[in-house]
Design goal:
Elements (H helix, E strand, L loop, with lengths): L1 H9 L1 H20 L9 H8 L4 H8 L15 H16 L1 H9 L1 H33 L8 H28 L4 H24 L8 H23 L1 E8 L2 E3 L2 E3 L3 E7 L6 H17 L6 H8 L6 H22 L2 H10 L2 E2 L7 H35 L4 H4 L1 H24 L8
Antiparallel strand pairs: 1-4, 1-5, 2-3
Helix pairs in contact: 2-8, 5-6, 5-7, 5-11, 6-7, 7-8, 8-9, 9-17, 10-15, 10-17, 11-12, 11-13, 13-15, 14-15
Length: 423
């Protein structure tokens, strides 16, 4: 294994990309410890550890919220903006046409609109946090100028993270925004371990039996997600023989790999971000039914939280699969290159066949992702350990981003004629 990693590091371009990504991680971690002035951070840390919306934001921000740093909002505003743009694309055909067929110019337009929407949502979320913390006595800054400084510092921090994500995608390895979320989740695991150590042996704390059960449950969830993430449905494909000059091409058999979890980690991330909307809006109306609904939908031990989280994961699994996988395009490409599925006519019949398989794969995938997201909440709740540190959401993000990044590194290695990292 070390030899394989050494081969990867021998490639100058790949080595530079890995170093750049690690450098951005270091900047991200540094930023989570640069505090925004005017907030009592000790009281805030106690509130964040109680669970709910603040804990959810904190884990994605890598502890930035509990420190009330410049990165306190994390990349949630950008994720929410991306969700809204995707939903609008499904509603308005003109926008969908720009997304699918606009080419480079269309991608630039969508990226520009997403940035504008990110600013608007970041402003709302920063304002909601300021109102909440002011009502609860966490904010010590009273002047309007000081409070505006807090809001715009948080908005600027979100844009810095968004910019870092773009740079990682461009000059580093993997998807930049996903890697920033990955770094944030990883950084909170030692906090969870520290909490277990603190509660062990404490009056009213947890016992050794509960710790053992937690470890076994964590490993079972980890292995289960690994197995499911690597599972795939293989659609056989046969290429017809054709003669070009004196040579014969084609004739070989291969397959199209359709992963069981086709949408990857995005449904979990989208559902988590979407659940913050009611809680964020509720902060503007403290003590009202809107606030009560928002709090009910952001408590990990709440029935309504888990029900809506499950339904949102199922919805976004179908939604993302629909917009990212085009059976008609795949059918046309097979026909263009002389490929066909044995027993299925090329053209419309192949499109319908692939669409039918996708639907069959997506249904169990959506249910499994939904269960992965909520079952650990009940399991770790029974052991009195904070579920958001070791929950299915965190584990799936860690595994999904890690596997996708390793696969990208493997592709770079194989392009340079080395043996890949993946067997």
């Amino acid at each position: 294994m070390w030899n394989l990693l050494k081969n990867a590091l021998k490639i100058k371009e790949l080595r530079a990309r890995i170093i750049f990504t690690l450098f951005m991680f270091a900047l991200f971690r540094l930023g989570t410890f640069i505090p925004v002035p005017g907030v009592n951070r000790e009281l805030l840390k106690e509130a964040v550890t109680q669970g709910g919306l603040l804990s959810l934001i904190d884990i994605f921000a890598g502890g930035g919220l509990s420190n009330f740093s410049i990165f306190a909002l994390g990349v949630f505003p950008y994720i929410n903006a991306s969700i809204i743009m995707q939903l609008l694309g499904a509603i308005f055909p003109k926008l969908e046409e720009i997304m699918r067929e606009g080419g480079e110019e269309g991608r630039r337009k969508i990226a520009m609109w997403t940035k504008y929407l990110t600013f608007f949502l970041a402003l709302i979320e920063a304002g909601a946090l300021l109102i909440t913390f002011s009502n609860q006595g966490y904010v010590t800054a009273k002047g309007i100028l000081s409070q505006l400084t807090i809001v715009f510092t948080l908005v600027a921090g979100t844009y810095v993270l968004f910019w870092m994500g773009e740079k990682i995608t461009e000059k580093g390895i993997g998807n930049g925004v996903s890697l920033i979320i990955f770094a944030g989740v990883i950084s909170r695991i030692p906090v969870g371990v520290g909490e277990i150590v603190r509660l062990y042996g404490k009056t009213g704390g947890i016992s050794l039996t509960q710790i053992i059960i937690t470890i076994i449950g964590f490993l079972a969830i980890l292995l289960g997600i690994l197995y499911l993430y690597q599972s795939e449905r293989r659609v056989p494909v046969q290429y017809a023989k054709r003669i070009v000059g004196r040579r014969m091409y084609g004739g070989q058999s291969t397959y199209i790999p359709l992963r069981l979890i086709q949408a990857g980690i995005l449904p979990i991330i989208f559902a988590s971000a979407f659940l913050t909307f009611p809680g964020t809006i509720g902060q503007f109306f403290p003590g009202t039914w809107i606030d009560s609904v928002g709090k009910a939908l952001t408590r990990s031990n709440s029935f309504w939280y888990n029900l809506f989280f499950f339904l949102l994961v199922v919805f976004f699994t179908y939604f993302y699969t629909e917009i990212s996988f085009n059976p008609n395009e795949l059918s046309e490409n097979l026909k263009k290159w002389g490929g066909f599925i044995p027993g299925v006519r090329p053209g419309e019949a192949t499109t319908q066949y692939i669409a039918r398989i996708i639907n069959r794969v997506t249904f169990p995938s959506a249910l499994i992702l939904g269960l992965i997201a909520i079952v650990p909440n009940f399991f770790f709740g029974a052991t009195q350990i904070r579920a958001f540190y070791f929950g299915g959401t965190s584990i799936l993000i860690i595994i999904g981003v890690a596997l996708e990044t390793v696969q990208q590194i493997d592709a770079y290695v194989k392009m340079r004629h080395y043996e890949g990292l993946l067997k």
